[in-house]
Amino acid sequence: MKVGIDKLGFYTPETYIDMTELANARGEDPAKYLIGIGQRKQAIAPVTQDVVTMAANAATKILTPADKQSIKMVLFGTESGVDNSKATAVYLQTLLGLSADVRAVEIKQACYGATAGVQMACDYVRSHPTASVLVIGADIARYGLNTPGEVTQGAGAVAMLIKADPDLIELEAESVFHSADVMDFWRPLYRSEALVDGHYSNNVYIDFFNQTWQEFQNRTDTNISDFDAFLFHLPYTKMGLKALRTITSDDQHSQDLLTEFEAAKKFNAEVGNIYTGSLYLSLISWLVNSQTLASGNHVGFFSFGSGAQGEFFAGNVGPSTQLQNLKMQMEASLNQRRQISIKEYEAMFEARRPFEAGDYAFDLSEEKAQFYLKGQQNHQLLYVNTKNN
Fold first, then answer.
1. Which Pfam families does the record cross-reference, listed alphabetically (predicted)?
2. β-pair type (371-377, 185-186)
3. Binding-site annotation, residues for (3S)-3-hydroxy-3-methylglutaryl-CoA
4. Chain segment 225-270, per-residue pLDDT in tens
């Protein structure tokens, strides 16, 4: 039985900053950000958007009433949770109007959480062929103003519907994973910004990729020539390119893989780091922007979450009858955004209230999304679905 990703939905906030302007404001050569890091724009989340609302805004773009009836699990990968106990998936279940007959769970392991959800979802569907699973990868990447990691911030959500006989990607059952307790990136409970050892983290990422890729080849008797594309978790686009170059050479097939990577990084460069959703935003980018995409294309995926967990798995492009809808969705998502100044961005960054106990209400005059956060009352977050009002 074929199982995999049937639909993909994406949401990113409607405000962004330009990397050239950020570089100039920080006294850096813009080429460092544009070429050295490989980022062009960075999505900026207003206080009215968190991972729950972004996930709802992404999922509502793809779910039909029939889809909602078939969903038996909601698996929410994030490292930007809104509660130390209650799962983001439960909030999402309510906002989307899903049945109470649903298992709703949040998964955390840095940027790897959504992949854990995808694999659990595929296993569930293989034993429950008529069911489907909603998997979310949503995060707001925060390192702090005037920090080395500032250029790799971002915000967004990817929603994936996992089911039998999928339209977009048929995922293979075999995968290779590797974990180790390393302190390359972490965020203590008392912080809303991550701590990272950037150089060390880059090395861990590449090491995990090479280990899992080598073992995958051993288990499946495949090699690089069997793949039409390699997709990577992209905290910034240059990182994936560095990893890919460790296995490519000067031959034509390697050059073709590098061309496909260019297609796969395009949207990530426009949005920035969305942690758990970054690999799957790259998948969307490849599906939309590849000039050679065809049903049956064999694609490898490398998922990575600092701390650290890595996994290599593979799949094949399905019939892709919904590809035009995905292209239209992405065009609307990215073209409707508004550029803000660095001063506006800094004010928005400082305005976020991740650990405040008191009641508060946000200014909603600029909010246009269907789902948003309007504030907090009696220690409870207040979410709004405008279609219910």
1. HMG_CoA_synt_C, HMG_CoA_synt_N
2. unpaired
3. 29, 143, 242, 273
4. 999 999 999 999 999 999 999 999 999 999 999 999 999 999 999 9
